[in-house]
Amino acid sequence: xxxxxxxxxxxxxxxxxxxxxxxxxxxxxxxxxxxxxxxxxxxxxxxxxxxxxxxxxxxxxxxxxxxxxxxxxxxxxxxxxxxxxxxxxxxxxxxxxxxxxxxxxxxxxxxxxxxxxxxxxxxxxxxxxxxxxxxxxxxxxxxxxxxxxxxxxxxxxxxxxxxxxxxxxxxxxxxxxxxxxxxxxxxxxxxxxxxxxxxxxxxxxxxxxxx
Length: 211
Hints:
By secondary structure, the protein is α/β, with parallel strands linked by helices. The chain has seven helices and nine strands; from the N terminus they run βββαβαβααβαβαββα. The chain has helices at 22-33, 53-59, 69-72, 96-104, 124-142, 158-166, 196-207; strands at residues 3-7, 9-10, 19-20, 38-43, 63-67, 108-111, 148-150, 171-173, 188-189. The strands form three sheets. A five-stranded parallel beta sheet has the order 6-5-4-1-9. It has a two-stranded parallel ribbon with strand order 2-3. Strands 7-8 form a two-stranded parallel sheet. Helix 1 runs parallel beside helix 7 (196-207). The protein is globular, with a radius of gyration of 16 Å. The N and C termini lie close together (9 Å).
């Protein structure tokens, strides 16, 4: 199984923990690729992530973007409370047209829900709509199956995992720690504080036993 990496925005100017400079991101991926097969994922479908797609393609690293469908309709800024007041240009997301273009170049697209909601806090009906409606819209817009979900904020519990399975996803991704399984797959979330050496140290215990 590949080591799945989790990123968000890619920018030299946005000084936020969710933003990674392209140079550091590529150095991290190259370092980790020396010891494991890696897969690179981007939550939120920030438009800025596309700046590193050509380099990742040259490196042979598969890429998946997890999109919030409410924002993809116009490529609008990711408007969530946690990012209120940040630069709308840095928060801009990929539109459906942009996502279709990326798919033609081999990028996979999965669901990040409709509105980037805290799924564990939603009533059953709202939870179902976030998962079912986003999957259906992705499939309608891109003309291909949407088999994967990444939980917004990495948040999930037994009810959310069961809802993801019922919605028809084949797997769902959380983050590095916690419950494991097909609806709580692990991803290594990396930030600016992680030098390539620190990133390698994070996976060393697992690498010793990797096939």
